[in-house]
Amino acid sequence: MSTHYAQLRALQREAATLASVSHLLNWDQETYMPHAAGAGRAEQQSLMAGLVHDRKTSPQLGDLIAACEQDGSLDARSKASVKEMRRDFDRETKLPKSLVEELSKAQSQSQECWKVARAKNDFAMFAPWLEKVMDLTRRKAECYGVPTFAGGVKGELYDALLDEYEPGMSAREIESIFTPLRARLAGLVAAVAQSKNKPDRGVLGLKFSQEQHAAFCHKVLEAMQFDLGAGRLDVTTHPFCSGLAPGDTRLTFRWKTDSFLEPLYGVMHEAGHGLYEQGLPKGDHFGEPLGEAVSLGIHESQSRMWENFVGRSGAFWTWALPHAKKAYAPALDSWTIDTMFRVANIVQPSFIRVEADEATYNLHVMLRFAIERALISKELAVKDLPSVWNSTFKDFLGLDVPDDRRGCLQDVHWSFGLVGYFPTYTLGNLYAAQMWEKINSQITDLDDQMARGQFGALKHWLNQNVHAHGRQFSASELCKKITGKPLSADPLLRHLESKLKPIYGL
Fold first, then answer.
1. What is the pLDDT of residues 137-175, one digit of tens each?
2. Fewer CB within 10 A of the end CB, N or C, for the chain?
């Protein structure tokens, strides 16, 4: 290893270590921090953001990147890592430190206001903070600049934010994927709605304790081989996963006394993220692109795969139902594997995205993509958000939104300024479906293994084919490397139709 590359890696690790402290502060704010500490936490986060920005934009770091770009001795992985370091450095240096600090402080304050406003169903309370965060986020996008894509095609301001989560993707490209997908999903959902062959919903009305949920969910985590010696599971308002540092990956979930499946699938979703974080080569490459996720779309493919392709399968319930019966005894004593499989795959439009079924979920994502794109372009004013949300929701999902708590206040993302994040959920579903077909062609007895509670072969396949690469390849390159094809919506639709049509007699 050259001296310059060794020095560069050391600086990157220092910056990542400092950033992990900020991530820990955020985890605490979402889990155990008292509400009265919000103002102080905002000051802490603002200071940390400035310090991290200093590290990520230091002239020494830029000089070392330039030196490594000229180093002919680097291997292919190291060259790919330096290329991504250049991308990160060039983006970060476009942002003034004052904006980074101001945005971080506003995000922390906005987050605390969102928690209260959501609980009180009071959009007017949250609106001024959302306005401020959106203004600052728009300024960040302006600093990045509107990107130009292949063929000299000019993008839009939203693309500068999307690039943070799904590098190289444009809003126009996402729209070209979402528009036909929405039409096909709407047709499937409509056909399901007309079916008279509906699953028994009785289990969904049963009430359970947090202790029962925790016992069952920990059993599932153990089977998935999430390492709780290098992670933990806690309760929060909006579920998330934080890969803080090597050996420290934290999951959270939201439990409800009147819900059986939501806590399970929330945990499996976040554990999918967690397995990616634990599978990344952070021990050797913490702070470097080689130790980081390639994109949020790929990250979401891991969470959605475990939640839906594994967790809603008949094979999973063959193994899981006996353990569920034990954890929730005696409520599930009369339930069969077939009944549970059908209940796990109920399709019915609903208000809350994180509780949505597998078929309607993407419609929730498409709505948010359309709205946040309009917020950034100023075609939509924050004050008009509730009415536009409600009318668009009616158009997409056919329901009248009863209140803002179950409408535009339900997600935490915009309080954080995470604009450009939402489309990656559906991209994740598409990546997952395409990978799933490849996985089953290579692990031909996967269903039999899952029915026995053996998920190690699947985890190993993901470790080797997805996690180990870090950011060596772009998301599109990784997709083609794994599946041999560019991203397509067809595998997801094949997956949904092959499962739902027999359930609903279509």
1. 999 999 999 999 988 999 999 999 999 999 999 999 999
2. N
Identify the helix (H) or strand (E) that includes residue 245: strand 241-245
Residue 159 lies in a domain: no
Q: Give DSSP secondary structure letters for 80-110.
A: HHHHHHHHHHHHHTTS-HHHHHHHHHHHHHH
pLDDT in tens, 201-258: 777 778 888 889 889 999 999 999 999 999 999 988 778 999 999 999 999 988 777 7
Residue 155 placed within a domain: no
Contact 471, 84 (CB under 8 A): yes
Mean pLDDT for all residues in the chain: 95
**Residue 384 sits in the same domain as residue 484:** yes
- Assigned token pair, 76: 């292919």
When mean pLDDT is compared across 99-103, 203-207, 356-360, the lowest value belongs to: 203-207
Boundaries of domain holding 64: 3-145
Distances (CA, A) of 76 to 71, 79, 83, 152, 469: 12, 5, 11, 28, 12
The residues near 182 (Cβ < 8 Å, ≥ 6 apart) are 362, 363, 366, 396
184 lies in the same domain as 140:
no
Kindly report whether the peptide bond that precedes residue 330 is cis, defined as omega within 30 degrees of 0.
yes
- Same domain membership, residue 321 and residue 232: yes
Residues 295 and 439 in one domain: yes
d(Cα 26, Cα 42) in Å, to the nearest integer?
Answer: 10
Question: What amino acid is encoded at 250 in this protein?
Answer: R
- Tally of structural domains, the chain: 2
- Catalytic residue positions? 270
Q: Percentage of the chain with pLDDT > 90?
A: 91
69 closest CA partner among 78, 56, 82, 81:
82
